[in-house]
Amino acid sequence: MSMVVGTKWRALVLVGIAELFAMTLWFSGSAVGPELAEMWNLTPAETAWLTNAVQLGFVVGALLSASLTIADVIRPRYLFAGCAFAGAAATALIAGVVESGVSAIVLRFLTGVALAGVYPTGMKMMASWFVKGRGLAIGVLVGALTVGSASPHLLRAVSGIGQPRVVLYGTAAIAATGGLLVLAYEDGPHQPETAPFDPSAIWRIVTDRGVVLANTGYFGHMWELYAVWTWIPVYLLASLEASGTANPERYAALLAFGTIAIGGVGAWIAGSAADRAGRSVVTSLSMIVSGGACLLAGVVYGSSLTVVAPFVLVWGFFIVADSAQFSAAISELADDSYVGSALTLQTAIGFLITIGSIQLIPVVQRAVGWRWAFIPLAIGPLIGTLSMLRLRSLPESDRLAGGRG
């Protein structure tokens, strides 16, 4: 009897679970960053590279995959599984062998390269099963990515603070399980062709007014997103300690999980809303709320758990709610002849931008403390909102969300 998945809904569930499991690798190093920093005497800037290395590796992996059309050479389920296994192995090596920050950062970079074969491949797998309802399918996948990215913080809270190897081995095992699960998948009837990255299309991309505005919105969104996801556990710990909350490390880890994971619900709801109200409206609203939260974080800092918890959960809901809509906008605005290159370039620049904002936060924190450390991130959502509102006022917006803008 074949183990191969035969219906689109089973495929959605299977790939969604596999994606959730594999993406636990993304913040596995960041979740235990305080413990690793103490073990290896890392500075805050060096600790930030436990995440930044993944961002950079993802960019390199995505560009290589698109340029070499690797997804056309290797069947998606094998590519997904192999990359999940590779990322799991790199993470397990950090737990079992590594004794310095430099070696860990190299392995985190390789983890990022591997994850470039997981997330985009999962998108392609879903597109092969869904024509009608593709927005729902991609929304589920983005939600799975978000919850998976949050999971190391939950594992840290449950397994015990101060046990970095438990978290690292745990996430490696979960990711490897995701790789095994996806082997039961078979391509659907609508498998799209992979669009290679074409450097010659860059000029057309940067001179297309609609694409430029949508990209600027995305870049503003990314300036905030991963910096908050990286540093929210440390902010929460400092805030809970300042308020005198008992057992602050465990509560900080649980709240960090909740802050990131609730974004999975936000992405699903926003995707449905954008199809009805318009992509520019939904993305602008999301960035206004999340950008405002960057400023208000200083106001609620040190407050009781009953104030801080709902604040960061609302922040987490909106901060990633708009993420998939920027890619959807590019797919609608860019000419078919270079939409693949436009999406690749958008992703590459977006993740490169996150490296700067992630590295900036500890610098600001040393100057003003954790209360106001997130203020510089508000500039990203501000620019992003202005760009999307400008796009909405132009004729190009008629191509968004079936004419809804």
What do these coordinates show?
With 405 residues, the protein is mainly α. The chain is built from 18 helices and no strands. It folds into two domains: 1-185, MFS general substrate transporter like domains (Growth Hormone, Chain: A), CATH 1.20.1250.20; 196-404, MFS general substrate transporter like domains (Growth Hormone, Chain: A, Up-down Bundle), CATH 1.20.1250.20. Helix content is 76%, strand content 0%. The chain is globular and about 55 Å long. The N and C termini lie far apart (48 Å). Residues 1-5 have low confidence and may be disordered.
Q: What's this model, at a glance?
A:
The protein has 18 helices and no strands.
**What is the number of beta strands?**
0
In percent, how much strand structure appears in the residues? Answer: under 5%
In terms of per-residue confidence, which ranges show pLDDT below 50 for 5 or more consecutive residues?
1-5
Helix amount, in percent? Answer: over 70%
So what's the overall shape? Answer: globular
Total of domains: 2
Oligomeric state of the chains? single chain
Largest sheet: none
Mean pLDDT: 89
CATH class of the largest domain: Mainly Alpha
Radius of gyration: 20 Å
Distance between the termini: 48 Å
**CATH architecture name of the largest domain:** Up-down Bundle
What are the secondary-structure elements, in order, as H or E? HHHHHHHHHHHHHHHHHH
Structural class label: mainly alpha
CATH topology of the largest domain: Growth Hormone, Chain: A
> Can you say what the CATH homologous superfamily of the largest domain is?
MFS general substrate transporter like domains
SS field, number of helical segments: 18
